[in-house]
Each structure stands twice: as C-alpha cells, then as structure tokens.
Design brief:
seven-stranded mixed beta sheet; alpha/beta; five-stranded mixed beta sheet; binds (2Z)-2-iminopentanedioic acid; binds NADPH dihydro-nicotinamide-adenine-dinucleotide phosphate
Length: about 475
C-alpha cells in the first residue's frame, strides 16, 4: 500500500503506530511534526503545545479520535486568506499593509473570532488565536467555529479618516470571505466600536446587505447590549467561581490588571463593583500603580483617555498624583492577591509568575489570549494556583457575540437582564466543564486541562460525524 510522502507532510510519522497510542512518545513526535510544518511560527507552536500536552494524554484511551487524526487535522487551519491592504494617509502618501483571515475550523458553527490591528500581527499570531478560538467557542456551548484575522496596521497616531480608509480597504477584500452563515468577525486589539462601524459600513456598501456579518456593532444598527462589557465581566464571573471553590470571594482582594483597553477596563469595573481593590492598569508604555485603588470615577477617566482622547496611560499620574507610572514595566511585581493579564500574548513570563507566587497571589485569570508564557503556565500549575487560561476565562466576549448573532437572526434585541443571565450562565457552565475534565483530586482543578479537553471533545465529536474531510 502506498505510504504518504513523509518529506512533504509527515503526518504518518507523527502517529507511527495507528493501532496504539503510546502517550508521551507520540506527544513528542506530534510536536516535532507541528514544528516542522510551521517554521518560524513560535506563537502558533506554543498554543498547539499547550493543548496537545493535555489532549494527547486524553487520547491515549480514545482510539476513535486518534485513529481519525482529529488533533492533527485541528492544527491545519481550514484555510488562510492573506491579502494586500493599500490605503492613503492624510498627506497623500500610500501605505501597504498585509491583512489575513485564518479560518481554523467550522465543525460546530460558522467561523467566529475577532480582528486585530496591531504592528505585531503576523500569520503565526493569527494562527494561534484562531486555534485557541476554536476551543474557546466550543466551551461557550454556542454553535460557533473558530477564526481570527487582522492586519499589521497600527491605528495609534492615525486620524479617524485614516483609520476609516484603512478599514474600507481591508473590508474591500475581506468581504469575499465572510458572511452571517460563513464567518462572523468582531473586534480585538486595535479594533473597537469605531473600527467595527467603518468595517460594517463598507461591507453593507459593497454587498448591499444588512446582515449580522460582524459582532460588536453599535446598538442602533444591530449590536447587542453588554457585548462591550462581556469579556471583562465574564472574566470576573469566572474568577468568582474559582475563588468560591476555596471559600473565597473578591471582597477586599488586591487585584493587578494589565492593559487599559476593552477587556482590562471592564474587568476592573466589575471587580471594583464586587468589592475588590484594583491597584494597576497598563499600556504598551508601562504600568500605573494607584495605591488607593481605582474607583468607578477613575476607571471612567481612563476610559475617556483611551477611547475618546486616545491618550497614553502615563497621563493618569498628572490627574491623580498619588499614583505612579513605571515606564517600560509590567505590573506583576506589585504585591497582590489576584492577577488579571488583559493586554496581549506572553506578557507574563515564568519570572513574573514566580514573583506573583512569592508575593502570595492566589488566583490568575487570563483576560488576554495566551498572556502567560509556557514557563509561567508551569509555575502556576506547580504552585497549584487557581489559574484559568484565556480560552475559558475570557470566553464571555465571544459568547455575547454569539448572542448578538442570535438576535440578528431573529431581528430582535434582547433585554439587558436576559443577556446578563445568559452570560453568567455560560461562564458558570464553562467553569463546570473545566472542573469536570480538570479535577486532579485533593481539591485541585487544572483549569487548563479541563478547558482543553472539554473544548476538544465537542469539536472532535462533530468532526468524527463528518468523516474524513
Ligand atoms: P484593546 O485594543 O481595547 O486594548 C489592548 C490593551 O493592551 C491596550 O491597553 C494596549 O496598550 C495593550 N497592549 C496591546 N498590545 C500590547 C503589547 N504588545 N504590549 C503591551 N501592551 C499591549 O484590546 P482588548 O482589550 O480588546 O484586548 C486585550 C486582550 O484581550 C487581547 O489579548 C485580546 O485578544 C483579548 N480578548 C479580547 C476580547 C474582546 O472582546 N475584545 C475577547 C477575548 C479576549 P496600547 O494602547 O499601548 O497598545
Ligand atoms: O478573543 C476573542 O474571543 C475576541 N476577540 C472576541 C471574538 C468575538 O467574535 O467576539
């Protein structure tokens, strides 16, 4: 019988013995294959490794999945579209950016996931995000596949008109690949309400259709209540469930938050509302430490600074002189009980994790996607911290995006009460799924393992039903 070409696409060597699954050995062989096929894509390999570490063990006595190479198939995106985005700045200079949409998997629903506009965006970053999104979306219990897209465009320092022209140019190509039942993008870093407006306006103009093709829309044109708040609020709901397993709550807890964007500020808002003392926020310039804590008024001040004035976080200290700004640093050295990384990937290293543990931190919940590097994850697991990966803890955003899609389909808008209840119910369900698959005995839940296996199982079962495609 003809063997697959081992030099081209060495999937056969990844699982040398199809009748057996010798666990750890296969994990190494599997990862060697992932590395070979994805050279110079460290973020993607990191995200796959984190899932494979747990899923390979789970597969050991699940021949149905490993005989069908489900994990291997999940690590090859269904497709990646890459395109040129040209735009003209306010003085007439022409710029060329690169745009992408990575459609990772649509086994359980239309592709779904955000768009990121940031100079650090590469194919590797978007592949890791689309891969993680696939598991996250499965955890929500909603019919959503996994995707991510974006461009290496930096909205910072650009005028509204420049951002508009960029968004229009980006959508002029992207519109061919998306649709309310095909792929539904949303926001992420650098893509907020303003960008979604320009993107939706251009989609509607090109196609002459008013559909739920994007989420995070304005309330006047098909958006959902609480979508803006959902990721940060959901993160804190998830955190509360984790704390409750140890008889704790948020009252009086000192919370360190990184970022000062959508996720960070709404997480801060909910944490403060539940009695926590939030001590830090940050942006790419450094972090601010307010020893008095941020109250709602201060959070609103930062929101206005970032969203309306589009300023830098350092400006906070001029308005609130008891606070200090630490240029070029991250907040993880400030003593605190809880850490909520809400900025970007790999912003919390092994060294940061050791500092947090040494300072008595009891819980870490990820608002950002993969903010903790591989070393940091192992530090948290070894210390048996309450540690929730982004794919579980920040799923509230995409969950309410899913609810926005449902509202668009029925051309109705649900009340805030209904949406709040749904969001809280979904976060509780995800927490329960993590407990089910991540319970290590002795009161310790490995939330990473729980999220990986619960997410994998749902997508894998759908893939098995479809046969080899
Ligand atoms: P925003 O653009 O609103 O805010 C991003 C924040 O992170 C800003 O404060 C930004 O600072 C900071 N930041 C971005 N890149 C870097 C970097 N390389 N180094 C240091 N700081 C950085 O994005 P969101 O709040 O929407 O997203 C934050 C994280 O949450 C991302 O990881 C995203 O993938 C994740 N997420 C977002 C969801 C959503 O619904 N929006 C849902 C689930 C996860 P600066 O202004 O200086 O760039
Ligand atoms: O990472 C994420 O889950 C998001 N940026 C939100 C995606 C969405 O489709 O709402």
């Amino acid at each position: 019988m003809a063997q697959p070409d081992h030099t081209d696409f060495p999937d056969h060597t990844d699982f040398p013995d199809h009748t057996d699954f010798p666990g750890h050995t296969d994990f190494n062989a599997f990862m060697a294959g992932v590395l070979r096929r994805n050279p110079n894509q460290p973020e993607f390999v990191q995200a796959v490794r984190e899932v494979a570490e747990d899923v390979c063990g789970f597969l050991a006595d699940q021949p149905a999945y490993h005989h069908q190479q489900v994990l291997l198939r999940l690590t090859e995106p269904d497709r990646i579209v890459s395109f040129r985005v040209c735009w003209e700045d306010d003085v007439g200079a022409i710029h060329v950016q690169r745009g992408w949409r990575v459609q990772n998997n649509n086994a359980i629903g239309p592709y779904k996931g955000g768009l990121r506009f940031h100079p650090s965006v590469t194919e590797s970053v978007l592949k890791f995000l689309a891969f993680e999104q696939t598991f996250k979306n499965a955890l929500t219990g909603l019919p959503l596949g996994g995707a991510k897209g974006g461009a290496n465009f930096d909205p910072k320092g650009k005028s509204d008109r420049e951002v508009m022209r960029f968004c229009q140019s980006f959508m002029t190509e992207l519109h061919r690949h998306i649709g309310a039942d095909i792929d539904v993008p949303a926001g992420d870093i650098g893509v907020g309400a303003r960008e979604i407006g320009y993107l939706f306006g251009q989609y509607k103009r090109i196609t002459n259709q008013f559909t739920g093709v994007l989420t995070g829309k304005g309330l006047e044109w098909g958006g959902s209540l609480i979508r803006t708040e959902a990721t940060g609020y959901g993160l804190v709901y998830f955190l509360c469930h984790m704390l409750a397993t140890r008889g704790e709550d948020l009252k009086g807890k000192r919370v360190l938050i990184s970022g000062a964007g959508n996720v960070a500020l709404h997480a801060a808002q909910k944490a403060v509302a539940l009695g926590a003392k939030v001590l830090t926020l940050s942006d790419s310039g450094g972090f601010i430490h307010d020893p008095d804590g941020f109250d709602q008024e201060k959070i609103d001040w930062v929101k206005d600074l970032k969203e309306t004035r589009r300023g830098r976080i350092a400006a906070y200290c001029a308005a609130f002189p008891r606070a200090s700004f630490h240029a070029g640093q991250r907040p993880w050295g400030v003593p605190g009980d809880i850490a909520l990384p809400c900025a970007t990937q790999n912003e919390l290293t092994g060294e940061d994790a050791r500092t947090l543990v040494a300072n008595g931190c009891i819980a870490v919940a990820e608002g950002a996607n993969m903010p903790t590097d591989a070393d940091g994850v192992h530090v948290f697991k070894s210390a048996r911290l309450l540690y929730a990966p982004g794919k579980a803890a920040n799923a509230g955003g995409v969950a309410v995006s899913g609810l926005e899609m449902s509202q668009n389909s029925e051309r109705r808008a649900w009340t805030e009460d209904v949406l709040q209840q749904d969001l809280q119910g979904i976060m509780a369900t995800i927490h329960h799924a993590c407990q089910t698959y991540g319970d290590q005995g002795g009161g310790y839940v490995d939330y990473v393992k729980g999220a990986n296996i619960a997410g994998f199982k749902k997508v894998a079962d759908a893939m098995l039903a479809f046969g080899v495609v």
